[in-house]
């Protein structure tokens, strides 16, 4: 099983600490959701583990034999692609294979792209220029591009923010299926706690640059903990079909609430 170990991670922007001292270990085959209020450092943290920004501390990635895995095997899908490229959807997804391509594009690469587009319901958009897609379609295409690169670690920054209900489930189903099948590590920054409850094997709750809590949904999606971190009164309920819902009720002053976590 592959393993990613993050030790004493710290990131500052212009000497202002954003991620202060974060440590955790992630395992292959598991989906981890990163949650927390706006501006708390979620994007910064996943950009650091993708080696896209400078950080202090240590991030190691190793296979089941303890051998290091190259950082090239980490795929990062940003919040929203604003590129104005005129490349087609097909070409954009094919770029996911760029490290393996030579002057001649082999059939198996083209087949992999077609299969991925088909799986995400994007085949009919193959020839459309990427710059003429809607926000949600762009999110799906960048996800396809990441998956076609055969990553060992898949980092998704708010992958469902522009998607309708059906596509939210579709994207997270694809990510979950791929994570389990290939035994990779997937980390998704999500704000929708119903999706978090449904798809996470593990949840990291970030607050003010620290991990406030890490664990299973029953340990993290707790009323008093969420109230403390989000400063909002919430109701946490589980339907008779087993789906967890976190309902925000009203913003609150934490001093009025009892915190026992
Ligand atoms: N390039 C940058 N330069 C300076 N400050 C930055 C930069 N990027 C982010 N920040 C600041 O770092 C803090 C954390 O930002 P980050 O985007 O990581 O938060 P987040 O938890 O992902 O937020 P959100 O939920 O709103 O997307 C914020 O205060 C933000 O303003």
Automatic annotation (TrEMBL):
Q: Which InterPro entries match?
A: AAA+_ATPase, ABC_transporter-like_ATP-bd, ABC_transporter-like_CS
Q: Which UniProt keywords apply?
A: ATP-binding, Nucleotide-binding
Task: Enumerate the GO terms in the molecular function aspect.
Answer: ATP binding
Record domain ABC transporter: where: 4-233
Q: What residue range is the signal peptide?
A: none
Q: What sections of the sequence does the record tag as coiled-coil?
A: none
Q: Which PANTHER family match?
A: ABC TRANSPORTER ATP-BINDING PROTEIN, HEMIN IMPORT ATP-BINDING PROTEIN HMUV
* Name of this chain's protein: ABC transporter ATP-binding protein
Instruction: Write down the species.
Output: Crassaminicella indica
């Amino acid at each position: 099983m592959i393993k990613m170990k993050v030790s004493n991670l710290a990131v500052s922007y212009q000497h202002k600490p954003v991620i202060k001292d974060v440590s955790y270990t992630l395992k292959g085959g598991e989906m981890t959701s990163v949650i927390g209020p706006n501006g708390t450092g979620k994007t910064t943290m996943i950009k650091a583990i993708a080696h896209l920004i400078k950080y202090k501390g240590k991030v190691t990635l190793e296979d089941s034999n303890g051998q290091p895995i190259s950082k090239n095997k980490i795929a990062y899908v940003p919040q929203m692609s604003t590129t104005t490229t005129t490349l087609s959807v097909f070409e954009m997804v094919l770029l996911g294979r760029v490290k393996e391509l030579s002057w001649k594009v082999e059939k198996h690469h083209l087949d992999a792209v077609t299969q991925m587009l088909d799986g995400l319901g994007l085949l009919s958009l193959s020839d459309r220029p990427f710059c003429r897609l809607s926000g949600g379609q762009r999110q799906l295409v960048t996800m396809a591009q990441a998956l076609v690169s055969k990553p060992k670690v898949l980092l998704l920054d708010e992958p469902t923010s522009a998607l309708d209900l059906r596509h939210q489930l579709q994207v997270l189903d694809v990510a979950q299926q791929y994570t389990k099948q290939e035994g990779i590590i997937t980390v998704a920054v999500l704000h929708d706690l119903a999706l978090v409850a449904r798809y996470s094997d593990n949840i990291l709750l970030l607050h003010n640059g620290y991990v406030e809590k890490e664990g299973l949904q029953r340990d993290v999606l707790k009323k008093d903990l969420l109230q403390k971190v989000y400063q909002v009164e919430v109701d946490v309920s589980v339907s008779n079909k087993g789906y967890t819902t976190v309902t925000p009720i009203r913003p609150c002053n934490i001093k009025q609430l009892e915190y026992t976590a």
